[in-house]
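Q: Convert this sequence to structure tokens.
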Amino acid sequence: MTQTITIGNAPVEIMNRFDLSQRLVRLLKNDEAVVAGIGNTNFDLWAAGRRPQNFYMLGSMGLAFPIALGVAIAQPKRHVIGLEGDGSLLMQLGALATIAAHKAQNLTMIVWDNQSYQITGAQPTATARVTDIVDVARGCGIKQSLWARSPDDFEAQVKKAITGGEKTLIAAKTDKEPPRGQTHRDPVLIRENFMQGLGVRSAKTFAPD
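A:
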């Protein structure tokens, strides 16, 4: 049975993060860059479908959106998607104000909000009590900030964000299911694959002298 909560006088489904990650990957048709935050966020992205344009961040809590912003500024013709958990975003809320102040209309931010610090013991975050991530983002100046109401609504919002030419934040309430995979933890390989995927590093090796 589908679980729902009420946000803004409307029902919002509690969705599965891996299912949404799979749906997201299926929508990527034009070499969009994806920067995934630490922990289960990038574990599920890894399991949903590896791409050279995916960056699997390790150990830098709350920096997925700032990194995604940097990529969006550096490559304005490429759409960039940042994936972040509610706990990590709460560590770096100031990033939303910085992002709002930049043009970077080729940036979409997706927040998986399971209302907990899942990988450290499921301690509740502020979003389990009083904080509404969408309201915070709007208050920072990201006007196109909204809740995904269902998996199909999530897909529709992502499609619109990728083609709409406006920076967007999409938040989804997610369950606490464990991740479906484990990212290969080789920072150098992750970096090199991503740089090659963005076309800024050649895969060729130098010939010996």
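The mean pLDDT is 93.
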